[in-house]
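Backbone-to-sequence.
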């Protein structure tokens, strides 16, 4: 996790949900199959910005290096994000939220789903999810500016652990302001914000079609529930 997610809300709805007042200078289309390196919305305090998904390593020397590093850094592990060279400075100084209607996971754990069965996870009240993220800005030797973002993940718990052993780090509303506060740079205090007692609260999930496996497919049908056969076991 997390390799694909969906955002079907309009920009005005996102702004209302996150109480933002500044909007980006362009609008992204609604998307049910967002993939790594794609442009996505991020929330930075009272503003919605656009960044590409996958943090570009600060030491990238050219665009080729940047794109290569980006594809390898779409997620940052909560356990080590404060230590890894690619992430640690952004973790201390540039934190954000990533809005999502839900995300996809491919089952890898024992349970009612066969291996690699895609499922869709969302809130049970239909509100947007708030992924914890970190962002940075890379400037190429030619002066091209690229903003990028990584989504923080953690160990899955509860029913979600029956699908996959990792899950995004969801932040409750009462921690949003502290998380995005650029003046908060003390690593221990920032890490304490990621200690969520019940990170799977208000989440639900269901199996969906394998159509999501192809980035060419996009539309609300990707999150439609599908019927499964008998559970698969090792025996």
């Amino acid at each position: 996790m997390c390799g694909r997610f969906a955002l079907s809300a309009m920009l005005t709805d996102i702004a209302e949900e996150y109480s933002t007042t500044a909007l980006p200078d362009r609008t992204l289309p609604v998307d049910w199959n967002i993939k790594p390196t794609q442009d996505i919305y991020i929330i930075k305090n009272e503003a919605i910005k656009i960044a590409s998904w996958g943090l570009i390593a600060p030491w990238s020397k050219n665009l080729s290096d940047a794109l290569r590093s980006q594809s390898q850094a779409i997620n940052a592990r909560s356990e080590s994000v404060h230590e890894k060279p690619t992430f640690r400075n952004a973790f201390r100084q540039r934190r954000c939220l990533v809005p999502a209607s839900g995300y996809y996971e491919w089952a890898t754990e024992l349970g009612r789903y066969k291996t690699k069965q895609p499922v869709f996870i969302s809130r049970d009240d239909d509100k947007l999810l708030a992924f914890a993220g970190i962002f940075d800005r890379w400037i190429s030797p030619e002066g091209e500016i690229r903003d990028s973002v990584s989504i923080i993940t953690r160990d899955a718990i509860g029913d979600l652990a029956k699908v996959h052993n990792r899950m995004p780090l969801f932040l409750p509303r009462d921690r949003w302001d502290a998380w995005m506060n650029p003046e908060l740079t003390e690593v221990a205090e920032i890490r304490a914000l990621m200690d969520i007692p019940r990170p799977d609260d208000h989440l639900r999930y269901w199996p969906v079609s394998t159509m999501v496996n192809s980035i060419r497919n996009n539309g609300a049908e990707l999150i439609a529930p599908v019927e499964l056969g008998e559970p698969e076991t090792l025996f």
